[in-house]
Every structure is written in C-alpha cells, then in structure tokens.
Specification:
Layout: H1 2-20, E1 33-38, H2 53-62, E2 67-69, E3 75-77, E4 80-85, E5 91-96, H3 110-123, E6 133-139, E7 143-148, H4 155-159, H5 167-170, H6 177-180, E8 190-196, E9 200-205, E10 218-223, H7 227-236, E11 241-243, H8 246-253, E12 259-264, E13 268-274, H9 284-292, H10 296-304, E14 308-310, H11 333-342, E15 345-347, E16 352-354, E17 369-373, H12 378-389, E18 395-399, H13 402-410, E19 417-423, H14 431-434, H15 448-459, H16 463-480, E20 483-489, E21 491-496, E22 499-500, H17 507-510, E23 525-526
Parallel strand pairs: 1-10, 1-11, 17-18, 17-19
Antiparallel strand pairs: 2-3, 4-5, 5-7, 6-7, 8-9, 9-10, 11-21, 12-21, 13-19, 13-20, 14-20, 15-16, 22-23
Helix pairs in contact: 7-8, 9-11, 15-16
C-alpha cells in the first residue's frame, strides 16, 4: 500500500508539473524545479491563526513583514526600506519601500500596513507579545510609527513574524480568514500556485516581490507521510530536499554520493513535562527522581544517532543567553531512589507506594502514570517509559494528534505527563512559557522569582544584563524541573548535490530561526545536470 501511494503521488506530481508549464516555452526537462519533501503540510495560510509548524513554514514562503531575519539572524529591513529605534527604545519608525505590490498586482501601501498592525494589536492571538505598544501612527504616505509604553527587548524579533496583508481582505467580517487560508495574497518571494491536500503544494516566484526573485520556476512541497518513503524518494531523486531522521541518514542515505547532509544546531528541545497541578508531580523531589532515572545520553545515541545533545534547559547553546553552568541532572539510579524516597514513596521490592499518611486521591498509592505524546515523539516516549520501568515506575504511552493534544488535553490540563517539544527564536523571551499566567504554561508552573526575572528580561535592552537575567531563569528551571529537559536534536537537511544554498555561511553555528527548514528556500538554486 505505501508504495502504491508513492506511485500515485508521483504520477499526480507529473500531472501538476505539466499543468504549470506554459505550452509555448521550454520543455519539462528544462524547468527549474526543486521538490521539498515533508510529512507535514500547512493547515492554513492565514497568518493570524496558523499555530502549527507546517503552517508557519508555508507562510514564510509567501508572506513578509516590515522586517525579517537575515542569514546571521540579524533583524534587517524587508518591506520597510529602513527602520529606526529611538535611544529610549520607546519609538520605532519604519519607512515603507516605494512602488510595492502584492502578488495580485494591487499596490502594497501604508494603508495595508496600518490595517495589519491595527488588527494584530486588537484581536490576533499573539497580541500579548505586543502589549507594550500603546499607539500606532502614520506619517505621510510611507512612514509607520510604533509608540511603546516602555522598552520591549523582544519587539523587533516579534515584528519579523507580522505578515503584511491587504486591507480589503482584513475589512471582511472574518478579517480575510476564509480567503487567505487557502489562497494567500503574497507579499513574499513565492506565490502559492496550487494546493492538493495530502499530496503537494506548488509555489512559483512572486514577480512583484521587492527583493531578489527566486531563481526557480517552481518550488514543490510534496507530502510524504512515511520516513521510509521520504528516504527512498531522496535516493531516487524524486525529492530534492528534506528534513530526515538521523538514523535513516546513517543507515541508508549517507552512502549515496548524490546526497549531501547539512547540519544546523537545533532550536528545538524535546522534553517530558509534568502536570504540576496534580499529585504527585507537584513534589519537586519526585520530578528530580524521575529525571535521574532517564538515560538521556542513551536516547541521543539510539534514537538520534548522536545528532542530538542532552538538554539541561530549553535555552539552546546557540543563544547568546545560554548558561553552560546550570545544574546538570545525570543518569543516576542510586540518587533516583534517594529522591523518590524523599518525595514520600517507599519501594517494597516490586513497586513504589505512597507512604506519607492518607492518599491524596483514590488509586494514588502506587507510583504509575501515563505519558501523552504525538506520533513524531512516540519512540522517545516509549524509551522513557521503558527506562522508568527499569526502576519499577510503570508508564503507559498514549498517542494523540497534534491539534487534539494541544486543544483537548494541554489547554484543559487533562494529562499527567507529556513528551512534547518547543522551538525557540533568536530572542530569548519566554514569558509565554514560564510565567505563572503565560499563554503556553500548560503544566501550571509557578515561581515568583521567575516571573520577576522574565519581566525584567523583556524590558532590559542591554545584552550583557539580559544574559545575566536569563541565566538566572535557567538556574531556576534546572532546579525546579517543571519539565525534564531531554534533548536538543540537530536540524538535518539532506539534499541532492545539485541543490545549492540549502545552508549559508555561518548557519552551522547560528542555526535557522524556529528550526524552519524552508528559511533559505528563496535562495535555493538547482544546478543543471549534464546530459549523456
């Protein structure tokens, strides 16, 4: 069945390619096409609602903001010709590039920019990131001014993710959601030409793009739901670029001379999160005991072929605030026994039983729990469960879809533990995750010192002082262990040798923002292959 699916997919791809090629131009073999393979596809191209990784990656192809990251993760002008931040950090002025257009050919003006920013601050789900913006003003026909009540260090980083949209669509009752979800109006380097759900998306260069237009006729995003099929498609040349499982690279693809591996330091941390609202996970010694019971080095070697590092925090080493001196919890079963005993459990030779007075709830006498996760991290969760079983802590793994895990379980707090991940951007701000009332603080972590530090970090503009502040945050998290920080995998992109600019100079140290494999896609090039 899987190979039949692949055959159907490839036949369909050929049909799409033929349909997109003008009849009176070059032959199909002369078309400059790069095929990107992924198990995911976007859910929506509506940038004010798409929260999943696939949607975010797709939106970066077709949309752009006033500013963006360059290859070295520096914030630079994009749709804005220039920008200026006042000395006190409370006034940001943007000057719009003249003569710009959306992919439809309609002018992209300050009216559209102003409408996008007004909607962002009034109703978008991420408006909390811009809570310090107190006013938006227009100066003439080409300048937008943001007024901040107080300095906000992450503001420029956050503005990189604000995609400019046409005012005519934002004025619709649903603010353009029904239109833009499937048919985005592009302000970025690509346009979405065709989307066949479950099969592929076809992007073509946006001829109205202000910057360098991609040197491709089309970029195809092919949906391949199996790691094995994806690796086979790379081997046969049906896929040009893909994010790959490191075990498959080592065991199958590394020997193929036509393929090249690009390694980026990852910005993603895979973790085991505890629901601190329920027994026994509110007990610090219990969380510490579980952490000491997990051999994270073994997980890195067995499941990631060594292309991952043990994590002691969710701040990645590439970040300028990374604290290499925080507390390290080793794999130590003897100490794990000590911590579990300190937490109030006693081992009777078969299982751990609660030994401190009355049971907190019915059935809580025995230490056992469930691990919720998604298919992507099933092997990590199963390995964690196996290792806990070696210390007589039964842990049962349950799989849920991404959207259901987030909306049904995490948001309602209906879980015990979860193996999940989060990626970080170039700015270290993490108030949404670790503040007591943070939007993504789903496991109920509360620490007044951390709350204080996070607010200070948001408003401190001095890099040295920010490093000190977030260094202290990491120390608190390493001691409290609201998450067992498991590992930080590298981002591995495998590509045909004919594809260039998949990695740019310096990115082997900086990585890609939010682990976005399509960050450089507008600069990808495909060298012509020799004809025999």
């Amino acid at each position: 069945m899987p190979f039949h699916w692949l055959f159907v997919c490839l036949v369909f791809a050929s049909t799409v390619c033929a349909a997109c090629t003008p009849n009176n131009t070059s032959s199909e073999s002369d078309v400059k096409q790069i095929v990107y393979g992924s198990a995911w596809e976007p859910i929506s191209f509506y940038p004010l609602r798409g929260l999943d990784s696939g949607s975010f990656y797709g939106q970066t192809l077709v949309y752009e903001g006033l500013v963006k990251y360059d290859a070295n993760l520096k914030v630079v002008p994009a749709l804005a010709e220039s920008f200026n931040v006042s000395a006190d950090g409370c006034t940001i002025t943007f000057k719009l590039r003249p003569g710009q257009h959306f992919s439809t050919g309609e002018p992209l003006t300050l009216v559209d920019v102003f409408a996008t920013y007004k909607l962002l601050l009034s109703s978008a789900p991420f408006r909390s990131y811009f809570k310090d913006v107190c006013a938006i003003e227009r100066l003439g026909d080409d300048q937008l001014v943001l007024k901040l009540a107080k300095p906000a260090a992450p503001i420029m980083s956050m503005l990189c993710e604000v995609r400019i949209l046409p005012k005519r669509l934002l004025d619709l009752p649903d603010h353009g959601k029904s239109v833009l979800a499937r048919t985005p109006v592009s302000s970025g380097p690509f346009c979405l030409k065709r989307w066949e759900s479950g099969l592929e998306l076809v992007f073509v260069p946006n001829k109205y793009y202000w910057g360098k237009v991609p040197e491709l006729d089309r970029l195809v995003w092919r949906v391949v739901p199996s790691k094995q099929l994806l690796s086979l498609a790379l081997k046969t040349g049906e896929i040009d670029v893909a994010q790959i499982d490191p075990r498959i690279w080592v065991s199958f693809l590394a020997s193929k001379p036509q393929l090249k591996l690009e390694q980026f330091p990852g910005s993603r941390t895979i973790y085991l999160a505890f629901n601190l609202r329920c027994f026994p996970f509110a007990l610090p010694a219990l969380r510490q005991g579980i952490t000491l019971s997990i051999n994270r080095e073994q997980i890195c070697k067995q499941l990631f072929a060594g292309y991952a590092t043990v994590a002691n925090t969710d701040f990645v080493p590439a970040s300028f605030v990374f604290n290499p001196k925080i507390k390290v919890w080793p794999y130590d079963l003897r100490e794990a026994y000590t911590k579990l005993t300190q937490a109030g459990f006693r081992f009777n030779g078969r299982e751990w039983l609660w030994a401190q007075g009355k049971n907190p709830r019915p059935g809580a006498q025995k230490l056992a729990f469930s691990i919720l996760t998604v298919k992507d991290y099933e092997d990590v969760a199963e390995t964690v469960a196996y290792q806990l079983g070696q210390i007589n802590i039964p842990a049962e793994v349950h799989i849920a879809e991404h959207a259901i895990l987030r909306s049904q379980y995490l948001k309602s707090g209906d879980f015990q533990t979860v193996v999940w991940s989060r990626s970080v951007g170039p700015d270290p701000d993490c108030l949404a995750y670790w503040s007591g009332n943070g939007a993504f603080n789903f496991n109920g972590y509360q620490n007044q010192m951390v709350d204080k530090l996070l607010l200070e970090g948001q408003h401190e503009l001095n890099h040295k002082k920010r490093k000190e502040i977030y260094g202290q945050v990491q120390e608190c998290l390493a001691e409290d262990l609201p998450w067992d920080f498991l590992l930080q995998p590298k981002l591995l992109l495998v590509h045909n040798q004919a594809i260039k600019n998949v990695q740019k100079p310096g990115q082997e140290k900086t990585g890609l923002p939010w682990d976005n494999p399509l960050f450089n896609a507008a600069d990808w090039q495909k060298l012509p292959t020799s004809k025999s």
